[in-house]
């Protein structure tokens, strides 16, 4: 038989033997579905990566701060421990309210040092 000339293909398409528009539509839908699945997988993996970064960015400062609280408890500094717990509670509330987007809890130890230095300066002024 061999290869049929193009005018025969047109006749087949017009007669209903090969419905070109349905074939094109089906292939277009398959390509779109593959693109949607690929984009979804990429975005979900990217979002999980951001969650992991956020968790490690939150866990490390809080872990260090809790370690300081534990050391104060073992040394018997109850007043300092209460201050640290109240400070951590306030900082966590600010972080929770902003959903972690606007408030950086990574500088927790720096803010504690600034607060404790400011409190010590006020105590020296009072004396």
Which helices and strands occur, and which strands form pairs?
Blueprint: H1 6-15, H2 20-75, H3 78-97, H4 108-126
Question: What attributes does this structure have?
Answer:
127 residues, mainly alpha, 4 helices, rod-shaped
Short description:
With 127 residues, the chain is an all-alpha fold. It has four helices and no strands. It has one domain (6-126).
Question: Your description of this structure?
Answer:
With 127 residues, the protein is an all-alpha fold. The chain has one domain (6-126). It is built from four helices and no strands.
Overall shape: rod-shaped
Please give the alpha-carbon distance between the first and last residues: 109 Å
Helix content: over 70%
Query: Which parts are unreliable, with pLDDT below 50 for 5 consecutive residues or more?
Result: none
Secondary structure tally: strands: 0
SSE order: HHHH
Please report which band the strand proportion falls in: under 5%, 5-15%, 15-25%, 25-35%, 35-45% or over 45%.
under 5%
What profile does the largest beta sheet have? none
The average pLDDT is 76
Radius of gyration: 33 Å
Total domain count = 1
Structural class, from helix and strand content?
mainly alpha
Work out the helix count.
Answer: 4
